[in-house]
Design goal:
2 copies of one chain form a homodimer. By secondary structure, chain A is of the alpha/beta class. The first copy, chain A, is built from 10 helices and 11 strands. The complex binds NADPH dihydro-nicotinamide-adenine-dinucleotide phosphate (2 copies).
């Protein structure tokens, strides 16, 4: 049986570390007050749940949190103005606009208006571009891909020289995970819905990352014995035995995969909790950069 | 025997098309004067050769060309100032700083100071970032990767649903070629110097792109019969039978590979000529965008 990659516990450890570092920095620098903001447009229930999770986690870690709720009817221009205000507000170190957005708003314009220096989601083209570059000087890495690499590293799983397969090539998960694995010296194959011989390719993977959004799509007998499996998918399926009538499953059939893999991340409790932990980490990194800049400025004024 | 992918002829066709389009646009719009500039720092012989090639090709196509030669001793700040002047000069539609640069100059600062709107080399992080995004809205694609895709398309080689292997993951060739192949729906594996079982992986490729800079490294018996092989490498090796004492070879052993592949690009005369053709194409696209913007401005003034 595969060992579980316990994202819940790993994320908790990281959040404890972050909290400790923030406490220490606050003691050392009276002006140090990391501050995260979220703009939420509309009242989608799932968005409200995610925003609340982020708020709770931020506050627990000692990060100030402000929520800017906007009506569904907000115009694109009004939203861009709110973004610019947060860009210009020196007390805010990072913010994000909770996705998805209503269809009358251009997502790309929103992403690209956020200052790359406060882009804690890591979705700005300049941050994605720097992520892809050899020396990887992105100010922020996108949270879910960063969390996946962290899961592997904290489980002592070697990435360099391994064959990895990533299924899914989205801008926010699959593609940046591919990039990070390649930059960590894995040999990586990127698969998607047009891939012809998927089970055969999956069989070559020492490390398999699945992020497609299809319940229990990858079967245990596709997987190379001893492979490491990270399941990003989060799919609700019917389950009459639950009070809610549904339960969460990943993109990998856990029952069969866990008998073949050496390590596997469960759903829920695998990648999910890491995303929030990485958002806190990005916010802390940003606050530290702003502190350093302020200190450099004061120093040069002396 | 493999069919030759004749980059020289394909590039010539493209340059003829570009020339024709420029002539037509000049006739239609008296203000249309596409203009390419290059900043060359120092006197490296290879750089002078490349710059001269670009100059000749630009002029032949009806693109104005200006060369800004700078001494090796130029400071980084002086170079950045020259770049900003070209950014601000409305008669210039595209420019590049010929690489490599002397070691006292930070390449990244140079690349990132060039306006993304004039970045005809396509090396600015924001252009690389947008290239990696699903909707690929990069203003410019880097010339060599763009030329490789063009070679495949003009040879009627299908990319979608094929297995592709790219060897080499540099910022200017390997990585963006990977990205473009993936965005064209190939399933792509990206290999590099830390890849363990390279011949075995190469064997899976319907399309193989090699960009490593190692003379005749990939052998014919690694290649899947019928595969398409694009050889980006440009390596000088000793050849006493030549007057110069050297000749150019690719990263693929042509003699053995050409008996197995269905298509192969030779060195020289394969990818090389495409790079310059794509530079002209990027310059033309940029000049057209500036023309369109000026027309929109005039229109909105009416
Ligand atoms: N914190 C967390 O735990 C997070 C979890 N997720 C979950 O991860 C999953 C993926 O999310 P996201 O990347 O945003 O999804 P997208 O829908 O944006 O992308 C899905 C990708 O999977 C590919 N795909 C779809 N079907 C198949 C198939 N049958 N075979 C191979 N590839 C396929 C698509 O290919 P193509 O490009 O060809 O269309 C696409 O690249 C979802 O379940 C989501 O809920 C996402 C973000 C965070
Ligand atoms: N117009 C044209 O025709 C152009 C031709 N070229 C030519 O293409 C070649 C590559 O150029 P460029 O991308 O700039 O080179 P770089 O030196 O920047 O990158 C070389 C890449 O090849 C990888 N590599 C090196 N040795 C091996 C090996 N033994 N096995 C597998 N991978 C290996 C390296 O891996 P790692 O990352 O692990 O170090 C690296 O990713 C050169 O010959 C260059 O002259 C380049 C640009 C334009």
């Amino acid at each position: 049986m595969a060992k579980l990659i316990d994202g819940k516990t790993i994320a908790k450890d990281i959040r404890t570390q972050i909290k400790k570092e923030i406490e220490e920095l606050k003691q050392k620098y009276s002006t140090f007050k990391p501050h995260l903001s979220i703009i939420q447009v509309g009242e989608r229930e799932d968005s409200t749940v995610y925003v609340r999770q982020k708020e709770r986690a931020a506050k627990e870690a000692g990060i100030e949190f402000t929520l800017h709720k906007k009506a569904d009817s907000i115009t694109e221009n009004e939203l861009l103005t709110s973004i610019r205000e947060l860009n210009d507000n020196p007390s805010i170190h990072g913010f994000l606009v909770q996705l998805p957005l209503p269809s009358h708003i251009n997502k790309k314009k929103v992403t690209e208006t956020i200052s790359p220096k406060k882009d804690v989601d890591g979705f700005h083209a300049i941050n994605l571009g720097n992520l892809a570059k050899r020396d990887c000087e992105a100010l922020f890495l996108p949270c879910t891909p960063k969390g996946i690499i962290e899961l592997l590293k904290r489980s002592d799983i070697e990435i360099a020289r391994k064959n990895a397969v990533v299924i899914g090539r989205s801008d926010i998960v699959g593609f940046p995970v591919f990039t990070l694995l390649s930059r960590n010296d894995a040999t990586v194959t990127l698969c998607h819905s047009k891939t012809e011989n998927l089970p055969e390719i999956v069989k070559t993977a020492d490390i398999l990352i699945v992020a497609i959004g299809k319940a229990e799509f990858v079967k245990g007998d596709w997987i190379k014995p001893g492979a490491v499996v990270i399941d990003v998918g989060t799919n609700a399926i019917k389950d009459p035995s639950k009070q809610s009538g549904t339960r969460w499953v990943g993109d990998v059939e856990f029952s069969s995969a866990s008998t073949v893999a050496s390590y596997i991340s469960p759903v829920p409790g695998g990648v999910g909790p890491m995303t929030v932990a990485m958002l806190l980490q990005n916010t802390l990194e940003s606050a530290k950069r702003f502190l350093q800049e302020a200190r450099n400025r004061n120093f040069s004024l002396l």
